[in-house]
Write a structure and sequence with these properties.
By secondary structure, this protein is mainly α. The protein is about 75% helix and about 0% strand.
């Protein structure tokens, strides 16, 4: 039988990944997800343009936010159940997210560097840990 901790962490991880995929699918253009769907399924999802500047910023960073949220939730589930699990998950997700952004800046990995992505990822990692701890 699954523990309550496992179920909560998996719901947070899966939910964030599914919502993030939907944002990438409908509110972004020319992502790896679009390339995959067009290459293997000949499917081009409809693009929903966002004209509000605030919503544009949200749509540009929500994918990174939800990715970091999912990563932090998964790390919280993976790390041993002790008093350092929450801190370890937060630090692990924040360091990995920041590292990947810096690799994008140095053009070692493809992507576009954005300092706001780092901020969004750190906030998401902290929020995930807080919400999971409150759920337990």
């Amino acid at each position: 039988m699954k523990s309550r901790r496992s179920i909560i962490c998996l719901w947070h991880t899966g939910g964030a990944l599914c919502i993030g995929a939907l944002f990438y699918l409908f509110f972004r253009k020319e992502t790896y997800l679009h390339t995959f769907l067009q290459t293997y399924f000949q499917y081009a999802p409809p693009f929903i343009p966002v004209r509000n500047p605030i919503l544009t910023v949200l749509c540009n960073h929500i994918g990174d936010f939800l990715w970091a949220y999912a990563l932090s939730s998964a790390l919280y589930w993976i790390f041993p159940k002790n008093r350092y699990a929450a801190v370890s998950a937060f630090v692990g997700a924040s360091v990995l997210g920041t590292g990947l952004e810096l690799l994008q800046k140095s053009e070692i990995v493809s992507g576009t560097f954005d300092g706001l992505d780092i901020l969004a990822e750190i906030i998401a990692a902290g929020l995930a840990v807080i919400l999971i701890q409150r759920s337990l």
